[in-house]
Amino acid sequence: MKSAEIDALVKGEHGAPHSFLGMHTRDNQTIVRAFIPNATNVTCINTKTKKKHPLVASKTPGFFELTIKSAGFDYKLKAEGDTVWEIYDPYSFAPVITEYDVYLFKNGTHYSIFDKLGANVMTINGIEGVLFGVWAPNAKRVSVVGEFNNWDGRTHTMSNIYSSGIFEIFIPGLKQYDMYKFEIKTQNNDILLKSDPYAKFSELRPGKASFVYDIGGYDWGDNEYMESRNYPMNGPMSIYEVHLGSWKRGMETAPGREGEKRFLSYTEFADDLIPYVKEMGYTHIELMPIKEHPLDLSWGYQVTGYYSVTSRFGNPHEFMWFVDKCHQEGIGVILDWVPAHFPKDDNGLAYFDGTALYEHDDMRKGEHLEWGTKVFNYGRKEVANFLIANAIYWIEKFHIDGLRIDAVSSMLYLDYNRNEGQWVPNKYGGRENEDAIEFIKHMNSVLLGRSPHLLLIAEESTSWPQVSHPVEWGGLGFNLKWNMGWMNDFLSYIAKDPIHRSHHHNNLTFAMMYAHTENFILVLSHDEVVHGKGSLIGRMPGDLWQKFANLRVSFGFMFGHPGKKLLFMGSEFGQFIEWNQGESLDWHLLEYPHHQGMQDFVKELNRVYKENPPLWNNDFSPKGFSWISVDDASHSILAFARFGERERDLVIVVCNFTPVTYEDYLVGVPITGTYHEILNSDDIRFGGSGVVNFGELISIPQQAFGYENSVRMRIPPLGAVFLRIF
Known about the structure:
By secondary structure, the chain is of the alpha+beta class. 21% of the residues lie in helices and 26% in strands. Helix 8 (381-397) packs parallel to helix 10 and helix 13 runs parallel beside helix 14 (593-611). The termini are far apart.
């Protein structure tokens, strides 16, 4: 038996080295075994008595054994080869991962599994080191390799604890920033080098190693914010969507690289981005994916390190600093999260242990042909646990306020972007992905159960019912959904020459037919300014003045319309060039009046939006909205009322989508009284023509649009006007 076990160690096929290596005591006899391939001599040292016991070298190079009559004792190993070194024997430590941990993980409910799997710095029996754990149930053998063992997979072979498929080893003496990978021997005897799925920090591309990193110990300064954080569904929400790598670049000062463009760091973003967002009046920053990813061109949507904040901009504690500073300034942080697919990179999750572990083996279920990526197997509880715990990790360890879940539609439908023969129906013969649906409901229930204030935002582009309704009501359990229908209809409308807009008036009004079926966010996101679509300002018709006027009235209509708001970076000052992830935004454009006026308008729009509750506190209730003028297609004018909670809490929004001025336009009002203009997109200070309403607008008993009372007002060309009753 001993010979067979030694042979298995040498071949790298021993699945339970802790049962053979290390110290084993029976009947007052102690056996110490060590397999140290580069050693010529090994000595066991009693750490209490300092007594030394030389181990005997076997015929197998690197294998040593000692048998003595003694009770067990604490010890170190002194190894001699090209050098001399002392170590605490990794095989002298009992398992840390418990049978209960295994039970929860296999049941899909170990929500802190990241504290056991991956690389976790800890102290055991007074000895500092790192606990490594990895799930690879179909592997013959798993080892931790790194510079500390010359990347030799024979040295730190992990044990398959409780025959669970979870491999574990505690390696004393390792520390922060030590580099490692998992070496996996498959059933076909292939050797795979894999990044740690649970790594807390990862090497910057093109490197593929993981780093030991202890994410604990950060001293948060956002206690006041966290304690006062409320569920914001009935509050203002104006989100600034940001791609960190291209919001702004710095200039390199390193010798030989002076003048090159470089990424800013998380701490630099804290000093630069946060003040800008606060000055502009946004309530939240939404970050496009910042988990580790190898390909810049993927914008972060092809994730290899789900638990690793990307090293492009700094380390995890520096990102915590960024979030902390956002919160101290009253700004929420939303992360773009990608549970719908993962890339095929050889160091990643794909065929992790030589089999389809995180994905389906059948490519009709397991691949997104359009994206060239793998699909998670949501029906495998350990995979679902990996993802749910990952969401919890970002929310609880990094104080994240919300997750925008990417590509939900691709999760819900088995035939998503697949032709006949490229997908497999569910057990009922349908196209719904029952496993994904159950996963989504489970995840959302768990997340909101732990953090009721959390924002869970679905990017879902179909008419799937009740996406943003609670699970107990039959919904998917998200609390917000991107309104892709409104976005597509509106962008189609606004790109048309004003002379033709009267024939497409329903593009403006149709969204209100379903506005209260979901809790919607109105979005003008990154997807609308790439892939040849051009920038928002670039698709506006007319001359330069009309382009900016069209963009201002667009934003005015958007902020008046029911639903929370999201704008992608650069749109707020009218960047003309289509977004390029490899370049900084064109901040120099703010030297020109049109762009500065555009930015000033968005800043003022955010202020007016936040300071007027009717514009947000009944977003998801029919009582918060009423059409005033819905069918004036011939003039391309819309007017509607937004109602707050109090009796006379009212804002009226009037939008004119033609370049025609109306000096004496009659607008019906639901409440009699005195109105004041609180915002006009045609104000000269924003680059407009100055058709504004001065002073009081007092309602008169004259019918208009079905209302008994009305106000006479000026309506600017290509303008949006906000009136508030006082």
